[in-house]
Amino acid sequence: MTNIDPASRPSADLVEHLARPSDEEVDALDAWWRANNYLTIGQIYLKANPLLREPLASEHIKPRLLGHWGTSPGLSFVYAHASRVIQRTGQQMIYLAGPGHGGPALVAAGYLEGTYTETYPNVTQDEQGLRRLFRQFSAPGGIPSHVSVPTPGSIHEGGELGYVLVHAFGAVMDNPDLIALAVVGDGEAETGPLEGSWKGISFLNPARDGAMLPVLHLNGAKIAGPTVLARKDPAELRSLLEGHGYDVIEVTGDDLPGMHHRFADALAHAWAAIRGIQVDARSGRWDGSRPRWPLIVLRTPKGWTGPEVVDGVQVAGTWRAHQVPLSGVRGNEDHLRVLEEWMRSYGPDELFDENGAPTEQVRRANPTGELRMSATRHANGGLLTRDLDLPDFRNYAVDVSDPGATRAESTRKLGEMMRDIYARNPDSFRLFCPDETNSNRLGAVFEVSDRAFAESVTPDDVSLSRDGRVMEVLSEHNCHGWLEGYTLTGRHGWFATYEAFAMVSASQTIQHSKWLQEAAHLGWREKIPSLNILLTSTAWRNDHNGFSHQGPGLIQNVITQRGSVGRVYLPPDANCLLSVADHCLRSRSYVNVVVIDKQPQLQWLAIDDAVEHCARGAGVWSWAGNDGGDPDIVLACAGDVVTMETVAAAGILRERMPDLRTRVVNVVDLMSLPRRKDHPHGMDEATFTKLFTDDIDVVFAFHGYPGAIHQLVHGRPDADRFRVRGFVEEGTTTTPFDMVVRNRASRYHLVMDALNNARRVPSGADDLTAWCRQRLAQHEAYVVENLEDMPEVRDWTLGDWAETG
Fold first, then answer.
1. What structural domains and CATH numbers belong to the chain?
2. What is the pLDDT of residues 116-129, one digit of tens each?
3. C-alpha–C-alpha distance, residues 539 and 445, integer Å
4. If you write DSSP's letter for every residue of 705-768 in order, what string do you get?
5. Which of 1-15, 221-235, 417-431, 733-747 has the lowest mean pLDDT?
6. The pLDDT of residue 3
7. Model confidence at 2, in pLDDT bands (50, 70, 90)?
8. Start and end of every Xylulose 5-phosphate/Fructose 6-phosphate phosphoketolase N-terminal domain (predicted)?
């Protein structure tokens, strides 16, 4: 291995050596690749006779043939050559496999490097271990067919097509010594997220960040037909990629050893170009313009080295090679014979010794220690995670002497806290936001960091520079995926977006949750910083954007995840938000969704009360009700706007019907509602009873879809007594109060619900119901005439008890 001086360009001799491998090196590369291909096929087909020490028979074949061969030989070919570069240079590299089902190739790579046996000692490097390796693949009690969580060296689930580049870009941000080699499948390249993610180079800073090297692997076909980019004229494709800003290097063919030489040359020059860009940037020789980072286009046949023709039909190089080229092996002697010939064509006797371990020639292609891509610490980010240097969140508190008396923009206080986190953690914290940082009132971060931008900057631009570390791009997929790659490699951050647009990237949230859920079962996977999602511009306060921007659906997605991962917080004010944010940034391996609006809102709790309230997850606000310990009705709320409506409803009841005993319960941790056995945050039975009783009806005003609360309180005493008001897909461009009216969650609707469901209703209930209906009619006429809410609603504070009457 050559020691690379980080301040010097690679020498011409080193680059030449990398570009022109010796015959001995090519032999080692080819042996490793053949061994990988053999292991890949074995995982797909065999449950016994792993080294073909006896003639292949039907009883050696798995009952179900699962997995994907077509992309695998290309993935392992790239892996072998990347390992050679690492071995010769000491370059830290992580490998991300974008093609959906390349799992067997990457499992085989880890096995050949020895990492798999180190991680799973029962999968030994002998014949018995090979048998286990083959039997476990895509089988009950085994491992998935993707490059998934159990695969050492992986931070990317190959099945989530479209995200390989965003994960790779996120992995190298503030990670200057790392190259993320991201293989993009040509089927994957057709997805919207992938097409948008090429732009990541417009945000990399070569002085501070690592590099992402994409390999666009064009094998011509997806599961049942051709791919768009493979059928494009090569010159047109080159123009497309060059237009994105890349320096394109092309390698095409299937001839051996010629392909080894051509790809070694391409990879050597790509690596040298990356190092040259970084050295210039880190030594003061960078003019600030966006570098033209290298990109390799690799064209190989689908199912390269596999059966050419099966049953008289062309397979290799077509979509038929995508999954299992020989599908009827157990009942078809011809297919069984072809499979055996195919596997023996790789020369297993030359690749594995008499005990079944990889031979010295195969092992010669492996880097050592943590330089092995299957053993890199960057793929087990918890090993690299450092706790954030967090300021005391109490320093940003809003002064609340009386509940509901003053208004503040709650997220602005969080922005101030983020500003100081940026300053104290210059290489381990970032905010990722789709062009909405200022809109979401988080703009204080610009006091210490610009937006990152590697394209040209004009005098009209504000807080925009190549040195910025605030990540803004108008793509939820990019922002979400960058943060995933950032946290998976051990750093911390927030993804902030408008609530409705969180559904654009909701599948990413779900997939990351699944990753964390499975990682929790693997003792060798260290816990990583949580994925923190801040949702603002909520369904209830999109006054000018209208119905398209009104949708709280992400809550519904996250509460269905396992309790080991999913967390949803609905802080009602700034001080609760600060407490929740501090908790989220200290947490590990969760998906934390925090929902709060950015508009000025009433502030309820002093900071110490807020901390206590958030620690409990829910509590009685005795100052808002008058139950005296024995309520006739419980008014519960979760969410900022509906909390205000609930407190206002309680005020109406207290003023106009003081003999009705009303209890107000606010929920800030939504996952405190389920039973303890259903979620670790669930409150115990005694606490639940203390808040909600066992038999008094509960009118629950909820930020999201009403069904979520019914789902969460399932199994609680007499769960049918919970009557939930929430978002019911009624929306338009209208006033804030009109939104709660349209969704029948206003203070007047809550009062009427309370009257209809209270255990004991004093006289006058009919008159109060009529008064509420009158108020709703007045509201409807007023907003149409005046284009704003009635003053008694718009300017209401908790001190306005008398004005409610």
1. 12-379 (3.40.50.970), 393-602 (3.40.50.970), 617-804 (3.40.50.920)
2. 999 999 999 999 99
3. 25
4. -HHHHHHHTTTSTTGGGEEEE---S---S--HHHHHHHTT-SHHHHHHHHHHH-SS--TTHHHH
5. 1-15
6. 59
7. low
8. 22-383
Determine what percent of the chain falls in helix, strand and coil, rounding each to the nearest 5: 45, 15, 40
User: What is the arithmetic mean of pLDDT over 110-121?
Assistant: 98
CA 368 to each of CA 57, 77, 90: distance values in angstroms, whole numbers, following the listed order: 38, 19, 10
Please give the Cα distance from 91 to 778 (Å, whole number): 71
Q: Which residue has the tokens 């509590």?
A: 619
Cβ count near 796 (within 10 Å): 22
Dihedral angle over CA of 87, 91, 94, 100, nearest 10: -60
Q: How many helices (H) and strands (E) does the chain have?
A: 27, 22
Residue with tokens 């003999």, as numbered in its chain = 659
Give CA–CA dist 483/492, Å, rounded.
Answer: 8
- pLDDT digits 0-9 by tens, 746-765: 999 999 999 999 999 888 99
Output the pLDDT for position 803: 41
Residue with tokens 């000025």: 600
682 closest CA partner among 568, 556, 579: 568
Instruction: Say how far apart CA 352 and CA 361 lie, in whole Å.
Output: 10
| C-alpha to C-alpha distance for 697 and 714, rounded to whole angstroms | 15
Compute the CA torsion angle 625, 626, 631, 637 (nearest 10 deg): 0
CA separation for the pair 129, 123 (Å, rounded)? 4
Please say whether the beta carbons of 151 and 110 come within 8 A. Answer: yes
